[in-house]
Protein backbone atom coordinates (compact mmCIF):
# COMPACT_ATOMS: atom_id res chain seq x y z
CA UNK A 1 0.00 0.00 0.00
CA UNK A 2 1.33 3.44 -0.93
CA UNK A 3 1.24 5.96 1.88
CA UNK A 4 0.33 9.55 1.21
CA UNK A 5 3.50 11.53 0.76
CA UNK A 6 2.53 14.39 3.06
CA UNK A 7 1.67 12.26 6.05
CA UNK A 8 4.21 12.28 8.87
CA UNK A 9 5.82 8.88 9.24
CA UNK A 10 5.30 8.11 5.57
CA UNK A 11 7.32 7.12 2.55
CA UNK A 12 7.75 9.81 -0.10
CA UNK A 13 8.19 8.51 -3.64
CA UNK A 14 10.16 11.09 -5.59
CA UNK A 15 10.15 12.14 -9.25
CA UNK A 16 13.57 10.60 -9.86
CA UNK A 17 12.57 7.15 -8.56
CA UNK A 18 14.20 7.48 -5.14
CA UNK A 19 12.26 7.28 -1.92
CA UNK A 20 12.72 8.58 1.61
CA UNK A 21 10.96 8.24 4.92
CA UNK A 22 9.50 11.47 6.29
CA UNK A 23 9.23 11.30 10.05
CA UNK A 24 9.73 13.34 13.21
CA UNK A 25 13.28 14.09 14.30
CA UNK A 26 14.39 11.79 17.14
CA UNK A 27 16.96 12.35 19.87
CA UNK A 28 18.88 9.42 18.40
CA UNK A 29 19.23 11.39 15.13
CA UNK A 30 21.90 13.67 16.63
CA UNK A 31 24.82 12.18 14.65
CA UNK A 32 22.81 11.92 11.42
CA UNK A 33 21.68 15.55 11.83
CA UNK A 34 25.30 16.64 12.34
CA UNK A 35 26.31 14.74 9.19
CA UNK A 36 23.42 16.43 7.35
CA UNK A 37 24.74 19.83 8.42
CA UNK A 38 28.24 18.97 7.27
CA UNK A 39 26.86 17.87 3.87
CA UNK A 40 25.47 21.34 3.16
CA UNK A 41 27.49 23.58 0.89
CA UNK A 42 28.89 26.93 2.00
CA UNK A 43 26.23 28.56 -0.18
CA UNK A 44 23.47 26.68 1.65
CA UNK A 45 24.91 27.66 5.00
CA UNK A 46 24.90 31.33 3.98
CA UNK A 47 21.09 31.25 3.78
CA UNK A 48 20.24 29.32 6.93
CA UNK A 49 19.02 30.95 10.10
CA UNK A 50 20.56 28.12 12.16
CA UNK A 51 24.14 26.97 11.63
CA UNK A 52 23.78 23.23 11.06
CA UNK A 53 27.57 22.82 11.33
CA UNK A 54 27.59 24.08 14.93
CA UNK A 55 27.51 21.19 17.46
CA UNK A 56 25.60 23.37 19.96
CA UNK A 57 22.83 23.99 17.41
CA UNK A 58 22.63 20.26 16.59
CA UNK A 59 22.40 19.53 20.32
CA UNK A 60 19.63 22.13 20.77
CA UNK A 61 17.62 20.77 17.82
CA UNK A 62 18.04 17.16 19.00
CA UNK A 63 16.99 18.05 22.54
CA UNK A 64 13.87 19.86 21.33
CA UNK A 65 12.11 16.79 19.95
CA UNK A 66 9.48 16.89 22.69
CA UNK A 67 9.01 20.68 22.70
CA UNK A 68 5.35 21.58 22.99
CA UNK A 69 5.33 24.37 20.38
CA UNK A 70 7.87 22.97 17.93
CA UNK A 71 7.67 20.21 15.33
CA UNK A 72 10.73 18.95 13.46
CA UNK A 73 10.65 16.54 10.54
CA UNK A 74 13.43 14.84 8.63
CA UNK A 75 13.62 12.94 5.36
CA UNK A 76 15.72 9.82 5.92
CA UNK A 77 17.08 7.30 3.44
CA UNK A 78 16.88 3.55 4.02
CA UNK A 79 20.51 3.78 5.17
CA UNK A 80 19.59 6.28 7.91
CA UNK A 81 21.04 9.37 6.21
CA UNK A 82 19.11 12.61 6.81
CA UNK A 83 18.75 14.39 3.46
CA UNK A 84 16.25 17.11 4.43
CA UNK A 85 15.03 18.92 7.53
CA UNK A 86 11.92 20.98 8.26
CA UNK A 87 10.56 22.65 11.36
CA UNK A 88 7.41 24.48 12.42
CA UNK A 89 7.70 26.72 15.46
CA UNK A 90 4.54 28.17 17.00
CA UNK A 91 5.09 31.85 17.72
CA UNK A 92 4.61 33.24 21.25
CA UNK A 93 2.24 35.93 22.51
CA UNK A 94 -0.21 37.64 20.23
CA UNK A 95 1.05 35.61 17.28
CA UNK A 96 0.48 32.21 18.91
CA UNK A 97 -1.90 31.32 16.09
CA UNK A 98 1.05 31.45 13.63
CA UNK A 99 3.81 28.89 13.04
CA UNK A 100 7.10 29.82 11.41
CA UNK A 101 8.38 27.19 8.97
CA UNK A 102 11.95 26.31 8.03
CA UNK A 103 13.03 23.81 5.38
CA UNK A 104 16.34 22.70 3.83
CA UNK A 105 17.15 19.87 1.41
CA UNK A 106 20.69 18.65 0.64
CA UNK A 107 21.89 19.57 -2.85
CA UNK A 108 21.94 15.99 -4.20
CA UNK A 109 18.26 15.54 -3.33
CA UNK A 110 16.95 18.79 -4.81
CA UNK A 111 14.77 18.91 -7.92
CA UNK A 112 13.40 15.47 -6.99
CA UNK A 113 10.15 16.69 -5.43
CA UNK A 114 11.43 16.12 -1.89
CA UNK A 115 11.06 19.80 -0.95
CA UNK A 116 7.38 19.70 -1.88
CA UNK A 117 6.76 16.46 0.03
CA UNK A 118 8.48 17.82 3.13
CA UNK A 119 6.76 21.20 2.86
CA UNK A 120 3.37 19.48 2.76
CA UNK A 121 4.29 17.37 5.79
CA UNK A 122 5.54 20.31 7.86
CA UNK A 123 2.42 22.35 7.08
CA UNK A 124 0.35 19.40 8.32
CA UNK A 125 2.50 19.23 11.46
CA UNK A 126 1.93 22.96 11.99
CA UNK A 127 -1.82 22.33 11.84
CA UNK A 128 -1.37 19.78 14.63
CA UNK A 129 0.14 22.58 16.73
CA UNK A 130 -3.27 24.25 16.50
CA UNK A 131 -2.20 27.22 14.40
CA UNK A 132 -4.39 28.91 11.83
CA UNK A 133 -1.61 30.51 9.81
CA UNK A 134 1.82 29.39 8.66
CA UNK A 135 4.60 31.71 7.60
CA UNK A 136 7.97 31.22 5.97
CA UNK A 137 10.74 33.77 5.68
CA UNK A 138 13.49 33.26 3.13
CA UNK A 139 16.06 35.25 1.31
CA UNK A 140 14.80 36.77 -1.94
CA UNK A 141 17.49 34.76 -3.77
CA UNK A 142 15.84 31.48 -2.72
CA UNK A 143 13.45 31.32 -5.67
CA UNK A 144 13.09 27.52 -5.66
CA UNK A 145 11.81 27.62 -2.07
CA UNK A 146 9.41 30.40 -2.96
CA UNK A 147 8.08 28.29 -5.84
CA UNK A 148 7.45 25.32 -3.54
CA UNK A 149 5.48 27.34 -1.02
CA UNK A 150 3.62 29.22 -3.75
CA UNK A 151 2.38 25.87 -5.12
CA UNK A 152 1.10 25.08 -1.62
CA UNK A 153 -1.02 28.24 -1.62
CA UNK A 154 1.37 30.58 0.18
CA UNK A 155 1.36 34.20 -0.94
CA UNK A 156 3.98 36.89 -0.52
CA UNK A 157 2.99 39.17 2.35
CA UNK A 158 5.98 41.42 2.13
CA UNK A 159 9.63 41.94 1.52
CA UNK A 160 12.11 43.38 3.97
CA UNK A 161 14.89 45.18 2.16
CA UNK A 162 18.47 44.39 3.32
CA UNK A 163 17.01 42.85 6.47
CA UNK A 164 19.35 39.87 6.82
CA UNK A 165 23.11 39.52 6.85
CA UNK A 166 24.36 36.24 5.44
CA UNK A 167 27.38 34.43 6.88
CA UNK A 168 29.63 36.32 4.44
CA UNK A 169 28.42 39.66 5.80
CA UNK A 170 26.32 40.59 2.75
CA UNK A 171 22.96 42.30 3.22
CA UNK A 172 20.05 40.31 1.80
CA UNK A 173 16.34 40.98 1.22
CA UNK A 174 13.86 38.74 3.03
CA UNK A 175 10.61 37.55 1.42
CA UNK A 176 7.75 36.71 3.81
CA UNK A 177 5.17 34.23 2.55
CA UNK A 178 2.17 32.85 4.42
CA UNK A 179 -0.97 30.76 4.12
CA UNK A 180 -4.02 30.17 6.29
CA UNK A 181 -4.36 26.52 7.27
CA UNK A 182 -7.55 26.73 9.24
CA UNK A 183 -10.25 29.38 9.00
Question: Which labels suit this protein?
Answer:
183 residues, alpha+beta, Aminopeptidase, 8-stranded mixed sheet, 5 helices, globular, disordered N terminus
What do these coordinates show?
The chain has about 180 residues and is of the alpha+beta class. The chain has a domain at about 10-130: Gcn5-related N-acetyltransferase (GNAT) (Aminopeptidase). It has helices spanning about 30-40, 40-45, 55-65, 115-130, 145-150; strands at about 10-15, 20-25, 70-75, 80-90, 100-105, 135-140, 155-165, 170-180. The chain has an 8-stranded mixed sheet with strand order 1-2-3-4-5-6-8-7, sandwiched between helices. Strand 4 (about 80-90) and strand 5 form a beta hairpin. The longest helix is centred in the middle third of the chain and has 15 residues, at about 115-130. Residues about 1-5 have low confidence and may be disordered.
* Order of H and E elements: EEHHHEEEHEHEE
Number of strands: 8
- Based on CA inertia axes, which overall geometry fits? globular
What is the mean pLDDT? 89
Give the C-level CATH assignment of one domain.
Answer: Alpha Beta
H/I helix tally: 5
Give unreliable regions as ranges: 1-6
State the fourth-level CATH superfamily of one domain. Answer: Gcn5-related N-acetyltransferase (GNAT)
Q: What structural class do you assign from the helix and strand content?
A: alpha+beta
Q: Helical percent range?
A: 25-40%
Distance between the termini: 32 Å
Amino acid sequence: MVQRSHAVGSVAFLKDGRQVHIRPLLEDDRDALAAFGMSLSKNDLLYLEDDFTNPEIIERLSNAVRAENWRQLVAVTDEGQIVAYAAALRMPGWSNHVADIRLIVTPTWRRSGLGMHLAQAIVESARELGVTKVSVDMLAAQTAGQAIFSRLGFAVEGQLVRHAIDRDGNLQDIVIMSAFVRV
